[in-house]
Design brief:
The protein folds into 4 domains: 170 residues, 3-Layer(aba) Sandwich (Rossmann fold), CATH 3.40.50.300; 61 residues, Helicase, Ruva Protein, domain 3 (Orthogonal Bundle), CATH 1.10.8; 137 residues, Up-down Bundle (Zinc Finger, Delta Prime, domain 3), CATH 1.20.272; 78 residues, GMP Synthetase, Chain A, domain 3 (2-Layer Sandwich), CATH 3.30.300. 51% of the residues lie in helices and 8% in strands. The chain contains 24 helices and 8 strands. It is α/β, with parallel strands linked by helices.
Length: 529
C-alpha cells in the first residue's frame, strides 16, 4: 500500500475530531439536529485550519441516514457512497483552475438536476476568491435562489477579494488559527500511534513552526518522522527547520547587548559563510529577541517557550544584559531591516547596518533608543555599577578660606574689530539683517525687509521700500535700532529711508506701454486695467 502523508491520513472525518474550531462545530451541529440548514455557507481562514475538512464532514452529515451527535455515522450506505470518489452528489470544484464564466454556467445548468442517491446535492468551491468578476456575476443568482436540494459551501483564504453581493448571501464562518498546545497534543498522539519516541520540546517546536496551521505542522512532523530512527530531539527539529546554530545566535545577541561592534561583524561573517539566507537569519534573530522579551517580562516564561532547560538558562543569562526597552528597540531595528531587504540589492549590508545600529545605541536618536539608554543608566545606578574615575574628581577639603574665582582683566578681553559700511555689499547687508530679525523674533520687520531694496552710499545705509506703509514703519526709531543691532560689527553709520516712488513706477509702465504699441500697433495691443 502506498504511503499517505500524515495530514491526509489523519484528516478528520467527524466533527469531534476537528480541533480548534469548537465555535463553528457547535453551530453546524445544532443546524443539522434542528433541521435549520442554510443554502450557502462561506468558510474563511488561514490555510490548514480545517475549512475543506469541515465542508466534507458537513456534506456527509446533512445526508447521513443515522447521524451521531450531528456527525456522519460512517456506517450507512450514504456515508459509504460519499466516501468514494465516484460519487456525484458532493462535487468539489477548484476555483483556481475553473474560474471562468463558462464553468460557472455549466454549474448553473447541472445544479437543477436532483441528487442521485442523497438528500442534498452539495457543491464545495475551494479558493472561491479566484473566480473572475463575470463568474461571480453568473454565480450570484444561483446563490440567491438555489434549488431546495442544493447546498453551496465556499472556502477561501482571502475573503476580502469576494464581492459584497456574494458575501451577503452566505452564512459566514471564520476559522481561527489552531493553538500550539492543541497541535502539540495531536502530533504527540500521532507519534505515539506510530511508535516514534520524542522530546516534548521537539514536538512543541514543530507545533510552533506550523504557525497555527495543522497541515503545515503535520508536514514538518512527517519529515521529522523520517529524519532518524532514534529519539527525536529539539536540535533535530531545529536542523529540519533550517535554523542556524543556536549557540552562534546566542553569542550574536549577547555581543550586541555588550556593545562590541567588531565582535558582531565577525559573527555575521561566520553566519553568512554557512550559506544561509540573510532573510532567514534576521527572522531567527527577531524570534530569539521575542523569546528574550518573554523571559524578561513573564513569570511563567519557561512554560510559554517550552524549550530545553539548558537553552532557557542561556537565554536567561542574555536577557539579564539588557533592559526591556533595549530589547524592544533591537526588535524594531531588525524588523525594519527585514522589511528593507525586499528593496535592497545588498542584503548583507542591510543586516550589518541593523546590527551595528543595535550595538551602538548612542548613534540612535529615536525616542525609544533614548528611553532605553536612560533606563540602562538608572539600573546601573541602582545596582551601584555606575562609577566615575577618581582622576576626574576634584577633591575639596574643608577650609575657611574663601574660594576666589579668577577674572579676566579688562585689557585682556577679546576685542571685536569693526568694519566700515562702505566695504560691504547691499545684498550681503540685507541678508545679515534678515537673519538677525528672524533669530530675534521680529517677524513684522522681517516681512517688511523682504521687499526693501538695500543700497550703500558712503557711510549711509539706504533703504528703498515698495510701499508708503513700509516706509513709515522703517522711519520709526525702534525699527532702525534693530537694523543697527543686526550690523553690530559695523562702524557707526546712518540710515536713510527713501520716499515711495509710485509715480515714477507708473510713468515707467506708461513709457513701456507706448513702446509696445509702436512695435505691434495700437489695434493689436489691448491694455487691461
Amino acid at each position: 500500500m502506498e504511503y499517505l502523508a500524515l495530514y491526509r491520513r489523519y484528516r478528520p472525518n467527524t466533527f469531534d475530531k476537528l480541533i480548534g474550531q469548537e465555535h463553528i462545530v457547535s453551530t453546524l451541529v445544532n443546524q443539522i439536529e434542528n433541521q435549520r440548514l442554510g443554502h450557502a455557507y462561506l468558510f474563511t481562514g488561514t490555510r490548514g485550519t480545517g475549512k475543506t475538512s469541515c465542508a466534507k464532514i458537513f456534506a456527509k452529515a446533512i445526508n447521513c441516514e443515522n447521524p451521531v451527535n450531528g456527525s456522519p455515522c460512517e456506517k450507512c450506505a450514504t456515508c459509504r457512497s460519499l466516501s468514494q470518489a465516484s460519487n456525484m452528489d458532493v462535487i468539489e470544484i477548484d476555483a483556481a483552475s475553473n474560474n471562468g464564466v463558462n464553468e460557472i454556467r455549466e454549474l448553473k445548468e447541472n445544479v437543477q438536476y436532483p441528487p442521485v442517491s442523497c438528500k442534498y446535492k452539495v457543491y464545495i468551491i475551494d479558493e472561491v476568491h479566484m473566480l473572475t468578476g463575470q463568474a461571480f456575476n453568473a454565480l450570484l443568482k444561483t446563490l440567491e435562489e438555489p434549488p431546495k436540494h442544493a447546498v453551496f459551501i465556499l472556502a477561501t483564504t482571502e475573503v476580502h477579494k469576494i464581492p459584497a453581493t456574494i458575501l451577503s448571501r452566505c452564512m459566514r464562518f471564520d476559522f481561527r488559527l489552531i493553538p500550539v498546545n492543541e497541535i502539540t497534543s495531536l502530533i504527540a498522539s500521532i507519534y505515539d500511534e506510530q511508535g516514534k519516541s520524542y522530546e516534548k520540546e521537539a514536538i512543541t517546536a514543530i507545533a510552533k513552526a506550523g504557525e497555527g496551521s495543522i497541515r503545515d505542522a503535520l508536514s514538518i512532523a512527517d519529515i521529522a518522522l523520517s529524519y532518524s530512527n532514534e529519539k527525536l530531539t529539539y536540535q533535530d527539529v531545529m536542523t529540519i527547520l533550517g535554523a542556524f546554530n543556536t549557540e552562534v545566535l546566542y553569542e550574536f545577541i549577547q555581543t550586541i547587548f555588550l556593545g562590541k561592534v567588531g565582535g558582531v561583524l565577525e559573527i555575521i561573517d561566520k553566519l553568512c559563510s554557512l550559506g544561509r539566507s540573510v532573510g532567514v537569519l534576521i527572522k531567527d534573530v527577531v524570534s530569539l529577541l521575542r523569546d528574550l522579551l518573554i523571559i524578561k517580562t513573564c513569570n511563567n516564561a519557561r512554560e510559554i517557550l517550552s524549550i530545553p532547560e539548558d537553552k532557557f538558562n542561556a537565554l536567561k543569562t542574555i536577557s539579564d544584559l539588557a533592559v526591556e526597552e533595549k530589547i524592544l528597540r533591537t526588535m524594531e531595528i531588525f524588523s525594519e531591516a527585514e522589511s528593507s531587504l525586499k528593496y535592497s540589492n545588498h542584503p548583507r549590508v542591510v543586516f550589518e547596518w541593523a546590527s551595528v545600529k543595535a550595538t551602538r545605541p548612542e548613534t540612535d536618536y529615536s525616542i525609544d533608543a533614548l528611553l532605553s539608554r536612560i533606563k540602562t543608566l538608572e539600573e546601573k545606578i541602582e545596582k551601584g555599577e555606575f562609577t566615575v574615575k577618581e582622576e576626574k574628581i576634584q577633591k575639596f577639603t574643608e577650609t575657611k578660606e574663601e574660594i576666589k574665582i579668577p577674572t579676566v582683566p579688562k585689557d585682556e578681553e577679546k576685542k571685536v574689530e569693526k568694519i566700515a559700511l562702505s566695504s560691504l555689499d547691499g545684498e550681503m547687508v540685507k541678508a545679515r539683517i534678515l537673519s538677525f530679525l528672524r533669530k530675534s523674533g521680529s517677524e513684522l520687520l522681517w516681512n517688511i525687509m523682504q521687499t526693501v531694496i538695500v543700497s550703500i552710499k558712503n557711510n549711509t545705509l539706504v533703504l528703498t521700500p515698495t510701499s508708503s506703509t513700509d516706509g513709515e514703519l522703517l522711519i520709526k526709531i525702534g525699527n532702525q535700532e534693530k537694523i543697527k543691532n543686526a550690523l553690530g560689527d559695523v562702524l557707526d553709520f546712518e540710515i536713510e529711508v527713501e520716499e515711495y516712488k509710485k509715480e515714477k513706477l507708473l510713468s515707467e509702465v506708461d513709457d513701456a506701454t507706448e513702446r509696445i504699441k509702436k512695435i505691434f500697433g495700437e489695434d493689436i495691443v489691448i491694455i487691461k486695467k
